[in-house]
Amino acid sequence: MGVSGAKEFYKGIGQINFEGKESDNPLAFRYYNPDQIVAGKTMREHFKFAISYWHSFGGHGSDLFGGGTRSFVWDEYKEPIRAAKNRADAAFEFISKMGFDYFCFHDFDLVQEGETFAQSELRLATMTDYLKEKKNATGIKALWGTANCFSHPRYMNGAATNPDFNIVARAGAQVKLALDATIALDGENFVIWGGREGYLSLLNTDMARELDHMAQFLTQVRDYGRQQGFKGGFLLEPKPMEPSKHQYDFDCATTIGFLREYGLEKDFKLNIEVNHATLAQHTFQHELEVAAKAGMLGSIDANRGDYHNGWDTAQFPNNIQEVTEAMLVFLKAGGVQGGGVNFDAKIRRNSTDIEDIFLAHIGGADIFARALLTADKIITSSPYESLRAQRYSSFDTGKGKEFEDGKLNLTDLYTIAKENGEIQLQSGKQELFENIINRYI
User: Fold this and answer.
1) What are 403-424's pLDDT values in tens digits?
2) 109 is known as an active-site residue
3) Is 92 left (phi over 0), alpha (psi -120 to 50) or beta?
4) Catalytic status, residue 267
């Protein structure tokens, strides 16, 4: 899927192929076989793996205590368009060598923001045209686009929820351009992450008004997109805090409630990030289950946090237990609705070799593939499903079924309880369920 004649940025690294779990080649997939069929779909169709433009091609390894540890060839060019085109060349080379089909982007991942809004608009349009050429030449697609309405100082008090209308208007203009770029690139979804849509102190915050403004903003984004013929999904990405103390899209349940309150649930689904789930004191699988029950399991940002740190470390996924339990939910829900699995993850600050970014994505794809295979075996070959059904069997017939069907009232429950007398306890068999997971891993 490479582009002939383009400069090679990742020299010495060829196509990453599936070689099986016995392979000793670190630059090969052991479990991710894109053409292998699992539960009626190929792995490629299940996951639609995507590369995050920001971490993979813009992450220099800096942190709060020090500057970057990695430099990129494309950053050597001071002229923004030339630098951006070189970054795009590197990105499409990397995605091609990985054998993946998608990328995800913020507007100003594609090119440096201009000194004026007009300059930014021109730069983004130029790079959108260039990426269309890259997309057509390689077949690599945009899983989703979004707007970075959180990094610039103008958004220190939020974007859609900013108390200054002029900032809200600027955010709207920026989102319009990002959505235009996504549509031009045939993007399959458009994400809105409310990085600063929240508050630092409730003392100076009119929460009710800000939530109304946020809903109005999302309504306008939806309406504009549909008017432009965008048929893809709109996705909100929950996160409890960071950088705001309290963000309005705290977790899946909060976000779903917000969407339903304002009548947006038919157009918006959720983009669920693993590390955001754990920051909200939930498990990844819990958040998937909440979204799936609501019919809003749209897409996944795959990563993990450090279980000893209380912030968003965005490490590549490697916890087979966690991802296997998540894939049980994933398969039972029929997968994601319109989205895919984006590796919103960054290699560590001290990972400085050119191959490290490949090793990280190989490991991430393999852990998801291995977990998918394991979850499918658990569902199809173990007593897992029958044990779960057995726990709720009292609702399948008789009075239990009448309760589920809404045919009993509280007085009926009183009468049944009085007739039953004392009840024998039924074990939840949690240890057995855990042993089943471990057995099939």
Assistant:
1) 999 999 999 999 999 999 999 9
2) yes
3) alpha
4) no
